[in-house]
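User: My collaborator sent over this chain with a note saying "see what the structure looks like." That's all I know about it. Can you take a look?
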Amino acid sequence: MTYEFLEHTADVMFEAKGKDLNELFVECSKALNETIHGDVKLVEQVKKEIKVEAKDLDGLLYKFLEEFLFLLDSENLIFDKIEDLKVDEESLILKATLVGDNAEKYHFTNDVKAITFNNLKIADDDNGSYSVRVVLDV
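Assistant: Without extra context I'll predict from the sequence alone. Here is the result:
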């Protein structure tokens, strides 16, 4: 559905919405990636399959977003497209294919240090859609 950036005193905060959990997680990744590299379009040369597990949905979202930072720091890879993202709400496992490129080719607008748990709580709206606020430590 959408995401928007909100006022925050020191860090970056966004609110994302989705008609289901899969869409919510994709929208959160879009906001994170916009924070990292702005509107620079990446060449899609690298695909990386990921699998993330957690004890609850909030932790699953946290670990999913942290995976982007981990891959940037450990493998120098940046992603801005997701294929086949599936959130299994029962097993609390997320699987996805990330599409992007080598980060050395690009200029970053913000250095995102970490995803925080500050205000991170996925809400199931009355109409069956989901929303969440996420604070990024920059």
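A starting point for your reply to your collaborator: Residues 35 and 110 are 6 Å apart (CA to CA).
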